[in-house]
Amino acid sequence: MKKDILTSLGIAKKTEEEIRFLSPLVYAYIGDAVYEVYIRSYIINKYGGNVNALHKIATRFVKAASQAHAVHELEHQLSEEEWGIIKRGRNQKSGSVPKNANLADYRYATGFESLIGYLYLMDKHDRIEEIVEKAIVIIEEKTKD
Predict the structure, then answer these.
(1) What distances in angstroms separate CA 48 from CA 41, 55, 66, 129, one per listed residue?
(2) To 5 degrees, how large is the angle CA 49–CA 53–CA 54?
(3) What is the DSSP letter of 71?
(4) Is 125 helix (H, G, I), strand (E, B) or coil?
C-alpha cells in the first residue's frame, strides 16, 4: 500500500472542510505545479527532444491564453462545484499579471489552476486526469501549425 508522505513526515493532512476554506490562490499555487507535471510528462512522451525544444512546446500548454481557452471549451463538461472553483479562482486578485498575458486570460488560467489544485488536495486524481486530458486535446487542436 502506498504510504502518504505527509503522514510519514508527521503532518496531518487537511480535512475536506479545511480544504474547502482555503484561498483559491492556494489551490492555484499547487494546481500550477500539478498541471505542469502532467504537461511535462505528456510532451516528453509525445515529442521527446532536447530540453529547449521541450520547454518551447510546454509553453503552448501552460500559457494563460491556452488555459483560458481550455476552460471555456470545458465549461459545460464541468460540475457546478468545479465551475464554482474556477470562478472563485478567476475572481481573486493576485499581485501581478505576466507581461505576455491579458488580464481576462490570466484570471481564467488562475481559475483553471485553482480547479486542478482543489481536485488534487481533495485526492480526486482521476478527475484531474480527465480534465487535463481534455485540455491537452483542446490546446493541441488550437495550436496546430
Answers:
(1) 10, 11, 21, 21
(2) 75
(3) H
(4) helix
Residue-range domains of the chain with CATH = 22-142 (1.10.1520.10)
**Catalytic positions, please?**
32
Q: Which residues contact 69 (CB under 8 A, 6 or more apart)?
A: 138, 139, 142
pTM beyond cutoff 0.90: yes
Q: How far apart are CA 66 and CA 25, in angstroms?
A: 19
The DSSP line for 88-124 is HHHT---S---TTS-HHHHHHHHHHHHHHHHHHHTT-
Q: Looking at this protein, which amino acid is placed at residue 18? A: E
The 10s digit of each residue's pLDDT in 90-124 is: 988 776 767 777 889 999 999 999 999 999 999 99
Instruction: Tell me the C-alpha distance between 26 and 143, whole Å.
Output: 29
